[in-house]
Specification:
This protein has two domains: 206 residues, MFS general substrate transporter like domains (Growth Hormone, Chain: A, Up-down Bundle); 216 residues, MFS general substrate transporter like domains (Growth Hormone, Chain: A), CATH 1.20.1250. It contains 18 helices and two strands. It has a two-stranded antiparallel ribbon with strand order 1-2. α5 runs antiparallel to α7.
Length: 429
């Protein structure tokens, strides 16, 4: 019998907190271009298409890293994974801040996206090793919540700093902060409590690298044989694509141009939707567990979100109070995508839950990965030649055409959900 004591909660929270700081930085970097569209287009002399690609480079590498991240977490452990991730992220942020040309900014964003992709899984791995199982669900929700906090910091607070400092200076300091996080993780985080003299709460992973890789490949193949998983892989992209493409890039210039708002005011409105999204995720998850239903709550949330976004996009001159209300409703309703993690997990054998999570999360991120540059391309095709201070101004027709792509994918998401089979909150296989 192990005579060592369990690790104190204060130490467990501290170790988890260092990982969460990195996760928050990743969300901050994901959403930052939304309040920097004018500055980026002016500094790099680029069109909406190029700006969409610049923002999208974050997602290109992020998507690619989703499945390998789980494999790396098992092979390396969270300490090395989070340390390397934050180191590469700091280098990417530094490269982005100092970029003399667009290609270097793209490379920087690419490095940032691929490196911060490890943050969420790394935090979950830390929580599994340092906390008892009864804390796991709560800590998973708290991790997501802190991610949303990082996204909010990339809204009005970032815009406020940009009113006084160059975006390059601000990002140089965020690079320094990321390197400090990196050093802190390396010196203070450990994979298991026994490395700090405490009793382990979970058994250590004893699989060899080749065994893990083989298991992952077999798992992916098996997971994709379940119809629900295939449908759920396609479903979240439309809703998350609407949410992150609007709040993460094109919402601020749209609101500023067509509602006469300042960039700071427009950033507050898009952040309002993000806050509602962060609140909606745990509440709708709780409601789903309470009534024993996944499909219908997910479906209703998607429909309400689409209705809200459609109204914001296509009904001109909405009163400000109605606009705020609609953004709150769309954000809260978009939180229903969180149900897909449990829905998908219950649709495949429990032994494949990690693989299922990676596949579903990939489906979520594909939405903004495709939509951010696609909307930018459509805006450029519809541009009427109007510019101000070297920045292209896009008309309402151009935004309608671009945002129409997002709504179309959202409708496809609803159709996919209609063909799923509800698990009623029970493991079906």
């Amino acid at each position: 019998m192990d005579s060592k004591t369990a690790p104190p909660l204060s130490l467990a929270w501290f170790i988890w907190g260092l990982g969460v700081l990195f996760y928050m930085m990743g969300f901050f970097q994901r959403m930052a271009p939304a309040v920097m569209t004018e500055e980026l287009m002016r500094d790099f002399t680029i069109s909406a298409t190029a700006l969409g690609n610049l923002s999208g480079f974050y997602f290109y590498s992020y998507v690619v890293m989703q499945i390998p991240t789980g494999l790396l977490a098992d092979m390396w452990g969270p300490r090395r994974l989070l340390t390397l991730g934050s180191l590469v992220a700091g280098i990417g942020i530094l490269l982005f801040a100092l970029a003399p040309q667009l290609i270097w900014a793209n490379i920087g964003r690419f490095l940032i996206g691929g490196s911060v992709a490890v943050a969420f899984v790394g935090c979950l791995k830390v929580s599994m090793n340092w906390f008892t199982s009864r804390y796991y669900a709560m800590i998973s929700g708290m991790t997501l919540l802190f991610g949303v906090v990082g996204a909010i910091l990339a809204g009005p607070p970032l815009r406020l700093f940009m009113d006084h400092y160059s975006w390059r200076v601000i990002f140089l300091w965020t690079a320094v902060f990321t390197f400090i996080i990196c050093a802190s993780i390396w010196f203070f985080v450990r994979d298991y409590p026994h490395e700090k003299g405490y009793r382990d709460l979970q058994s250590c992973n004893s699989l060899h690298d080749s065994q893990i890789l083989s298991k992952v490949i077999r798992g992916i193949y098996e997971v994709l044989t379940y119809r629900n998983i295939d449908l759920l892989f396609l479903a979240p992209g439309g809703i998350v694509g609407c949410q992150l493409t609007f709040t993460g890039l094109w919402g601020v210039p749209f609101l500023a141009t067509h509602y006469g708002l300042s960039t700071s005011q427009a950033a507050v409105l898009t952040s309002t939707s993000l806050v509602a999204w962060g609140i909606g995720c745990p509440i709708l998850g709780w409601l789903s567990d309470r009534i024993g239903n996944r499909k219908h709550i997910y479906l209703i949330g998607c429909v309400l979100s689409l209705m809200g976004f459609s109204t914001v996009f296509f009904v001109p001159n909405l009163p400000l109070i109605m606009l705020i209300g609609l953004l709150l409703v769309t954000g809260f309703s978009s939180g229903s995508v969180i149900l897909g993690f449990a829905f998908a997990k219950e649709s495949a054998p429990a032994s494949l839950s990690g693989t299922v999570t990676g596949i579903y999360n990939t489906g979520m991120i594909i939405g903004p990965t495709i939509m951010q540059p696609a909307v930018g391309w459509v805006l450029d095709q519809k541009w009427q030649g109007t510019a101000m201070n070297g920045i292209r101004i896009y008309g309402l027709d151009a935004y309608h055409a671009g945002f129409g792509l997002m709504i179309a994918w959202g409708v496809l998401s609803v159709i996919m959900l209609l063909f799923t089979r509800d698990t009623h909150c029970r493991q079906r296989v």
